[in-house]
């Protein structure tokens, strides 16, 4: 079953994908492409960082194959990573005649998807540290999420599993402590998926909780699950994928 991987710019989507492919895995592996090939595609050795999305195209479509190890066996997830330099989300860009082919291609990729994983950045007020000014305010964060709500309602009528990942958790919490609380164990996890979601939503997604509930009510059969992720903690990194592997249809 395919999953769409999307998010705003500068949210860390590329770093998350690269780290997910790291061979030092627990229950989730990227089986194709392998880590070295993915690094060649996504990492700039000279800059010592992941490559920025080139603005010469409106849409970059990459495919990853992910294997999740579950108590019932191994589950394969086909990941379609739709990356954009940002312009594609502007209403004026979407409505321009010359951009219709690219916009329709994007919608064609996402409209029938059953699972969507959305990566969002932390907001300024939640961050501890000197780099808070590099991030948008809570109000801007809420406004940006409202645009995603509109998009999901209008253009993703068949989505059944929407996974929201608040990334860069190392900037706003003790990731090791939270991983111990939320971690997955195939035999006896400390929390059910419902309890994990309730905890993460109340603690980290409270500013948009009303919007999440509104979205849940407006798309029939939709399940929204909230996660925190970080490239610095493998347990938190893998959780959204274990959830998707557990609940997506074969």
Describe the structure.
By secondary structure, the chain is of the alpha/beta class. Helices cover 38% and strands 22% of the residues. It has one domain (3-248): 3-Layer(aba) Sandwich (Rossmann fold), CATH 3.40.50.300. The chain has a seven-stranded mixed β-sheet, sandwiched between helices. It has a two-stranded antiparallel ribbon with strand order 3-4. The radius of gyration is 17 Å and the shape is globular.
N-to-C span: 6 Å
Multimerization status = single chain
Please report the number of helical segments.
Answer: 9
Compressed to H and E, one letter per element, the order equals: EHEHEEEEHHEHEHHHEH
Helical content, roughly? 25-40%
Task: Find the CATH topology.
Answer: Rossmann fold
> Judging by the overall fold, what is the CATH architecture?
3-Layer(aba) Sandwich
Major β-sheet annotation: 7 strands, mixed
Number of strands: 9
CATH class: Alpha Beta
The computed structural class is: alpha/beta
